[in-house]
Amino acid sequence: MLPTRLQNIRTQIRHGEWTGTTGSLAPGYEQANIVILPENLADDFEEYCHRNPRPCPLLARGSVGDPFLPCLGDDLDIRSDVPRYRIFLHKKITIETTDISKYWQKDFVTFVLGCSLSFEAALMNENIPLRHYGNHTTCAAYVTSIPTEPVGPFKGALVVSMRGIKEKYIEKTVEITERYPLSHGGPIHIGAPEEIGISNLNDHIDGIGINYWEQDEIPMFWACGVTSQIALKNANPDIYIIHAPGHMLITDRQAYKNENS
Amino acid sequence: MLPTRLQNIRTQIRHGEWTGTTGSLAPGYEQANIVILPENLADDFEEYCHRNPRPCPLLARGSVGDPFLPCLGDDLDIRSDVPRYRIFLHKKITIETTDISKYWQKDFVTFVLGCSLSFEAALMNENIPLRHYGNHTTCAAYVTSIPTEPVGPFKGALVVSMRGIKEKYIEKTVEITERYPLSHGGPIHIGAPEEIGISNLNDHIDGIGINYWEQDEIPMFWACGVTSQIALKNANPDIYIIHAPGHMLITDRQAYKNENS
Q1: Residue segments in chain A with a per-residue pLDDT below the cut of 70
Q2: How many angstroms separate the CA of residue B58 from the nearest CA in chain A?
Q3: Three-class SS of residue B160?
Q4: Alpha-carbon distance values, B81 to A115, A156, B95, B139 (Å)
Q5: A2 to chain B, closest Cα gap in Å
Q6: Tell me: the pLDDT tens digits for B5-63?
Q7: Which of B71, B180, B254 lies at the smallest CB-CB distance from A180?
Q8: B65 in contact with A at a CB cutoff of 8 Å?
Q9: B130 and B138 in contact (C-beta within 8 Å)?
């Protein structure tokens, strides 16, 4: 039995009653990126995740044509349980929708990748302030100059998420996030955005989160699941489906035990 | 609240009342390899896992000196919650014990790695026969001729687990195990042991499981967490602690939903 609160959120998402972002929803439960693509690309994509485990920590792979993910949730149905999807069709059309049932194909394979939203509840619980937390928004994400390891048609730059943290909290923030390798683990860079190819913190990826950084904070960067979306764009399959930015899958798994959840 | 059955098993393990192997115990719950080593080696070991994600899928990293793993279990204490440990001291002494509290050091870092025992419940539930399953033993493991990617002092051969599967079940077995990338995922080889450097199926690693293969079965091989133990032996730290073979950590996480558990 799931806690009523998580069950309520899932039911709302399933019925299209919650179509917003999931940041700070269901604190403690593992949130995840989703990628759905045709079987002929699945093995290459899995290997891309394996070769790039910091941005693409693989939590589960669905069976061909099977929309259920029993290892992440008893009744999870990937066709309806993400609040908002993006479907990329015929290399040019993008559809945004809250249910993909009518687009489901019998050759689809689902991949579920960890997400840094999962460790934010742990940071908040240990009194590390995150200014974006609590209003269901996500922090900013940036394309870096660091390449990922290519596999087949999948390749591209590493994407990072950024959180502005006061100097006195940096050590603790590293320590807490390191505990969550399935949520990208510890930061990949601290302090000097230009060293990883980010010349201006306002040049974040459009449509993904908000730049909350302030002058008295140090920018900290974590590998980000959006990396997989760049790799998908480069592979450019005839059809693939991802979650809309910030609209993650909420799983039954507890990434962090929160007594209040 | 944990199901009573899992709570009972944990309590028995914690108090030294269950000191045996964990195969087929608590079906559906994620079982895991553990590695505990001094902080000065922790970052290299984490990177070794990241570079070799099939044998070493990293589930969690503990904070320095902290024996608790809240992301894997509310009350998990790594000092007592594994049924049997092996402690390697001063590069020559090996101690086997059921509780490591008196050996705990304030510079210890715990790593938890996925394990193929987690997907065996799923195979059994879909009527794939595993002859070793049900009597708390594990299947055989082998050192292959495939090298892992080295990081710092960590290096060595890939170790695999082997299950004999009848030909008619092979496709289904691949499909099911592919769903569990955190439990080593799909097989890395099927059918010809000599192609991965195994000349005789009776030459399995001593003390880890039993060779249950029969003539009418195809040997299937999966990447195995014992790979990390070879890498540790090669790194040869002054002190490190692992679980005794087959005596895994049972986490609160459900790797597979089993209605009977």
Answers
A1: 1-2, 134-136, 256-261
A2: 7
A3: strand
A4: 28, 42, 17, 23
A5: 11
A6: 888 999 999 999 999 988 888 887 899 999 999 999 999 999 999 999 999 999 999 99
A7: B71
A8: no
A9: no
The answer to whether the pTM exceeds 0.90 is no
Contact status of A50 with chain B (Cβ, < 8 Å):
yes
Report residue A35 as tokens. Answer: 């990628």
Tens of pLDDT, residues A77-109: 999 999 999 999 988 899 999 999 999 999 999
Name A230's Cβ contacts closer than 8 Å, sequence gap at least 6. Answer: A143, A156, A157, A159
- What is this model's ipTM? 0.78
For residues A205 and A161, give the distance between their C-alpha atoms in angstroms, rounded to a whole number: 10
* DSSP output for chain A: ---HHHHHHHHHHHTTS--S--TTSSTTEEEEEEEEEEHHHHHHHHHHHHHSTTT--EEEEPPTT--B-TTT-TT-BTTTSSS-EEEEETTTEEEEES--GGG--TTEEEEEEE-THHHHHHHHHTT---TTTTTT--B-EEEEEEEPPPBTTB--EEEEEEEEE-GGGHHHHHHHHHT-GGGT-S-SEES-GGGGT-S-TT-PPTTS-B----TTSEEEEEE-THHHHHHHHHH--SEEEEEPTT-PEEEEEESS--TT-
Which of chain A's residues have a Cβ under 8 Å away from the Cβ of B260?
Answer: none
Distance from C-alpha of A33 to C-alpha of A159, rounded to nearest angstrom: 14
Residue in A257, A258, A259, A260 to test binding to B, most B beta-carbons within 10 Å? A257
The answer to whether B5 faces chain A, any CB pair under 8 Å, is no
Task: For residue A73, count CB atoms less than 10 angstroms from its CB and return exposed for 0-12, middle for 13-18, buried for 19 or more.
Answer: buried
pLDDT one-digit tens code per residue, A108-132: 999 999 998 888 888 988 889 888 7
- The pLDDT of residue B207 is 74
Mean pLDDT taken over chain A: 91
Confidence of residue B73 (pLDDT cuts 50, 70, 90): confident
- DSSP secondary structure letter of residue B68: B
Answer for the pair A195, A183: CB distance below 8 angstroms, yes or no. Answer: no
Quick one: pLDDT at residue A251?
A: 92
The distance in angstroms from the start CA to the end CA of chain A is 14
The total number of residues written for chain B in this structure: 261
Binary contact (A63, B176; C-beta < 8 A): yes
What gap in Å lies between CA A205 and CA A142, rounded to an integer? 5
- The DSSP symbol for B153 reads T
